[in-house]
Amino acid sequence: MSSTLRTFSLGGVHPPGRKAPAAGLAIEVLPAPAEYVVPLLQHCGAPAMPLVKKGEAVAEGQCIGAVEKGLGASVHSPCTGKVTGLTRTPNPFLGLVPAVAIEPDPEAAPFAPLPTDWEAMEACDILGRIKAAGVVGMGGAGFPTHIKLCPPPGLTVDTFIANGVECESYLAADHRLMLERTADVVQGVRILRKVLGVERALIGVEANKPDAIAALLAAVEAAGEGGRISVEPLAVKYPQGSEKQLISALTGRNVPAGGLPAHVGCVVQNVGTCVAVYEAVALGRPCYERVVTVAGAGVARPANLLCRVGTSVQNLVDHLGGVRDEAVKCVLGGPMMGLAVQNLDYRVTKATSGVLLLTADETETGGFGPCIRCGRCLDACPMGLEPRDISIYAERGRFADTARFGLWDCFECGSCAYVCPAKRPLVQFIRASKLRLRCRG
Amino acid sequence: MSNERSYTLLERLGNGLVKENPIFKLALSMCPAVAMTNSVRNGFLLGLAVLFVQVASNVTVSILRRGIHERIRIPAYIIIIATWVSVSDMGLAAYAPGFYKEIALYVKLIVVFAIIISRLEVFASRNPILPSLYDGLGMGLGFMFGLMLVGCFREFLGAGTLWGFEILPFKPFFFWSLPPAGFFAIGLIMALFIWLERKFNAWRAKR
Amino acid sequence: MTRRALSAALAALLLLALALPAHAAGLVRAGAVADEHHITLELAGSLAAGWDWPGNVSVTERESPDIPLTVTGVEISPDRTELTLAVAEPVAEQGAYRVALRHVEIGGVGSEIERFLVRKGVLATLLSIVISAALIQNFVFSRYLGLCIFFGASGRKETAVGMGFSFGLVMTLSAAFVWAMYNFVLRPLHLEFLQVLTFVGIIAIFVQLLDTVLRKVNPFLFKKLGVYLVLITTNCIILAVPLILVGNAYDLWESLALAIGSAAGFALALFLMACVRERLELADVPEVFRGLPIAFLAAGLFALAFLGFSGMSF
Amino acid sequence: MKEFLKIAANLLAICLVSAGLLGGIFIHTEAARLRNEEARLTTSMRRYLPKGAEAAFSPIHRYLVEEAGLEPGVGYLLPTRTGHALLVLDPEGNVLHRAEVDAPLDSEAEREEALAHVLPGARLHFADTYILALGPDGRRLASFISGRTTGFKTWVKLLVALGPDNGVLGLEVLEHEEDPGLGAEIEQEYFRNQFTGRTLEQLARLGVVKLPLPDDYRRCLERSRWAERGLDAAQEHEVCAKFGGEDIHAITGATISSRRVTDGVKRLAGAFVRRMDMVTAAAAKAGLEPAF
Amino acid sequence: MAEKLWRVTMSPHLRDGTSTSSIMWTVFCALLPQLGLSAWVFGPRVLLLAGVSIGSALLAEWAVRKAMGRDNTVTDGSAALTGLLLAYVLPPGVPLDLPFWGAVFSVCIAKQLFGGLGFNFFNPALMGRAFLAVGFPVAMTTAWIMPQFPGFLSSLAAPDAVATATPLYVLKHAGLAEFLREFGNSRGWAALILGFRPGCIGETSPVLLLLGGGWLLYKRIITWHVPASMLAAVALLAWVFGPEGWFTGPVLPHLFSGGLFLGAFFMATDYVTSPSRPRAKLIFGAGCGALTMLIRLKGGYPEGVCYAILLMNCLSPVLDDWIRPRRFAPPLQCEPGKKP
User: Which residues are bridge partners to D249 per DSSP?
Assistant: First the structure.
């Protein structure tokens, strides 16, 4: 059965799904914490400039950080309250980033949506709204959505792809969104299709979420888009959620190395982003909320929490009954690409898809051995690169030689390290090589 | 010539035997060191031939150093070496026929041993006769020493004998008297040299 | 495309050379030593019925026509165009044997006595010289020659390829020259004792000449190969090959085959060693073994592996 | 141009000087080389002669004589009582040619020249040389036959010494490329000496057995090694007599090499005896008096 | 509550269950049935040989790592596997010091001096064998043992096989006719296929080796490429270059009477010394097979698997270099305006 389903051609691995508890749990709303610290930089790019000062009162959804130029997205206040200070907060990827600390006002009224008839709007106006709402990719990378929606001049886009794959283990945030806000997903897809001016839209979902597929099919029918939005079940394989792999799986087109999806006529957005776009465009609500899966054997109670940007991880965990003693590792994001953090003071960002508290049984903690040249990493790499050779050269400090093994095409999905029997930290070697070469070059 | 340093016999001998030992340090002319060292005697005799050629050509080149035109330096050196090699070849064939049979090819190949021409180029062409003679002696003896050391190692381990005399009544490791073992013997002895040198340097630094 | 066709044609030619033994115009078309005790003859036509072998077949070594080998049986193929002679004494593929058939009628032509010399074909001989020099008696791993350059030029793959190529060029050309010099000058004049001097002189002059010509004609190639040219003069193989071809009294073609084979074998050894050493640079080799000592050990292992070719004969 | 001439003159001078030097040394050493070579050969051959026996070594050179359209003949350049003669026989032993040769025959070149003179038009290929040790009365004391046979890997070059009655006096392995430790053991005394003392008839029936060499037989075969702690003469004689009539014990792990060498010895000795018979008969017929 | 210390490592935080040592021990176990059979038919001394071999390999690994001041790697199983494989390529009657010296050579010279596991470019066990073959030639060519059977199976023994001659030796030096006389009947074939014939400790039973190899294939520790292409190359060449002329050769004797199965499934598939890409593996396997047949038919030894694999080991860095993974997509051409 699964062999007839489409998937990407090269490499890929099958990590254990471990989605069971979280996937069955409805999204639950996290109560407002005592303080939000909203990072002004939530993805690689330029940090937003703060628009508020200490002591200033802010309203929920008010823009508190804006980006004038460069790669960036504006940041909005997650609550009505008072700015208690401009500080810095750690970000697992980016180090210490500027942030705005806000103390919520418990009595404030909830955000009032501002329904708009988006179908009557021009595409560029919709794009403007998306930009103003600070929508970013909710899949994990947090790339500003409005930039992705403007393909470089000269490239024509003919296909929009909604990414409902969620191939990372444990995570179920997108799954729950597709189940509980199916109609919003479809609306988001329709909006984005309009922005891009394309007819064809695909929603790729892995076959391990049959309920989501069924719900989406029904919602597409209900929206009268039966012929134009197709829901595509895909074989389960990691990293299908990566843009290039998803495009390859759905369309058979391979994005050239160093190219954009637009080079093969595609634009990909996460289903979470579709919902955010829907909220921003149709309801006028900026992006400051997201669903975070908290899972792993180290957490007292797994859950899918709807929480606001700036909430601390500690808040999430405390709400769920705290941490078990066996937990040894806290990972922000999925287990394959997420980052382990040394404490729980990290803040939820727009890109935080999960918080995993892993026990020693679930995760690898031992040291690594020499490469035995088994070649599994070569077979696993979805990009057809040579992690083995990169790691061997990097281990001897010969970083300049690593480029010819495809260093720059690596998006660090971790498939190679997952299969490595010597437990070599291949991704670490790759990252170190990139860093070293960037610094030098 | 530019190099007017004075060299003494002792200094040159030390240089050839240890500091720039042709086999273990310069790693030049390894072919006989691998192929001809399964007995000390072969090593000694081939070393002797090399010693003769090295000294003779060093002296010859040193004498002629002002007469040889710069452009044909290399061909001239090669002809000089070839002459002395032919001399030793014929001499050995005539007066040591039994031994000559075993190493005939290698005696002829002394012509292309890199150590000889490199000494001519590096030393003899820039120095007067006496230092050149000393240098030839040093290098030739160093070469002979290298061959004999490897020979000792292999003959003792391989056949239980030294210079044909039975030391052990059995053959400890037949393997070492086989030709491919030459590579292993040289590799190991080279590493030993490096190790000793490091120890020695560390010891001297401590002093 | 053309390269592929060319290599296919070459391969076909080589196979042909292996497959086809010597040809002759007589009633026996071809003959070969099949194995240690059998010689096969391919007849030009079918053998007339009624012929029986005892007393009618004789086999001798070419060198000893007066000492007949004991023929213990003759097998005639069903279509009567092939004879297999069983011989009591061992015969060797490399040897040459005279076969005489008496009172035979083959393809309608009768003959009182039909003689045939069974030996290897020319192409097969040349091929076996090439293979022997390249693999079985590989100069580096089986004869332990050319080691200075072998260790000196096997650090990088590009160097190894450049060295192998220049070496092959000089080797082939100088072998031809040396052959001519020896056979037309030194031997007729009984100047064999000048062997070493002339050979090395020819090689040195050749290298110098190539150096000069290349510098003028193809500066690009010179830039690539120039460095190696000088080194070639101090490579044992370059002198060993002439000495061997003179010692074995090879003819011109055999000399060329020897030169090509040994150059190919040397290039192969260099290339393999370069691959290994490039990989060794990444390895955690013990401090004192870094560099030359480990290269020697690697060469020793190669030599052990190349023992697999020992005793091979074509 | 002047520069070029200077260089050329320079190089030429070096070449000429060295060639001259080598020429001089060659003339001096070549004579010594030949003398020494011969001395070495005769000493090694004398070991197979009775102690104190006076012997002269005279070679018989064998040639293949090819004339157009004919079965090749075999030419023997042999010493006669008066000088040398060339005797060409057909494979059956009938005389095709005979000629007295009266020229210096010391080197290959001289022989070639002399033969071309007595047998113009024929193509001669040198095949091999038998060396006979002749006593003062012209009796054959020993014959030395060298030839090659296939070994396990490549060729093996053998030297077989036969006595006056064509029994084996000894065997030497001159060249071989057998595996060290296996086939290469054919050069060891314990293998070679097993042939010593076999009569021609025994040799003809000689086989190879795959049995381990008995210890006391080995002691008596390895004469040089066990000389001081070995057996006394009587015991040795007894052991040799006991095993000497049996087949050759193959070298452990190298049965094929042993068998090939044994075959080679049989073939070389057989061919030699047959040829000597033919030559003696033909010489008598042709009115030649060979020196043996 | 004290601040909890969280472990920080790079992604991915999930790992596949296999580890270097699990792979090594799986291969080790896949080899064991053959050892049992050998102990049964050649006598329990075989177990002693294997024990000495494994023990000295482990000892050598420990000692040389200690001498070099490196961490202990005895438990990763690679040394034990080398020891076992070395014992497998020895004749069952060799003296006990052979496996010791062989293992010391394999582990110290062929592996650890080159940087240890992962950097040895020759299969250590086979290198050990090549070393023993030249260093102890007599024992390595004569120490064969005729299989002994418990009564009820004695009918499986090949009838009057010459003691101390392996089937391949008979095939090479006595000819196909003699081989067929000894093994040509159904009992002979059964003995060849089941493993009741003289040979190295670990090569006798194609059936058990195939089982072990099949298990490794099933566990995805090895892929089919190398064994399949090696067996195919041997079969093809054996058929083409027959003793009686083209396309007449005996395929089955060449497949079943040597160390081919051991080599194809357990030696040539060694990760470190064989290339990694499927296409390279096919070439590698075919090369092993071709060289095996070249040595068997034309070379100086009756069996060529060991040297064939060693010779192809020389080429595997080259093959790895030439045959690289196919990239996901070619790099972007410098014309951003057009779709590639």
Answer: D209
